[in-house]
Design goal:
21% strand; 118 residues; 3-stranded antiparallel β-sheet; Tetrahydropterin Synthase, Chain A; two-stranded parallel ribbon; alpha+beta
């Protein structure tokens, strides 16, 4: 909402995520963690909240129409930017027990946003 450029129009993205996990020591298998565990955690979150979902700000005036038509949507406290989505994934990984260092979301080959707490 209220974006001055072409992104003010309804649109979507297919994104690629880059996730960095930090550990002081390797586990008994010589790894920081198993990539499959990260993938399972992130894919579950994405499937439940982001994939094939209409993400929008909680004050967007289109929400009543979406509710009336039983359309899947997720109303966020912040605008659904790549920065906000990378933060959402970061927080999910952290609360799932991963020592996440950063999450980067790529919207295109040259456009990305990274979230970290450092």
């Amino acid at each position: 909402m209220n974006h001055p450029g072409k992104c003010r129009n309804l649109h979507g993205h297919s994104v690629k995520a880059s996730i960095s996990i930090r550990q002081d020591q390797l586990n008994q298998q010589g790894m920081v963690c198993d990539f499959a565990d990260i993938r399972e955690c992130v894919e579950g979150f994405v499937d439940q909240y982001l994939d094939h979902n209409f993400l929008l700000h909680k004050d967007d005036p289109i929400i009543p129409m979406l509710i009336e038509n039983n359309e899947r949507h997720l109303a966020l406290d912040e605008h659904p930017t790549a920065e906000v989505l990378s933060k959402m994934i970061y927080v999910h990984l952290k609360t799932s027990g991963f020592n996440v260092a950063q999450v980067t979301l790529w919207e295109t080959a040259s456009a990305y946003a990274t979230f970290s707490e450092n």
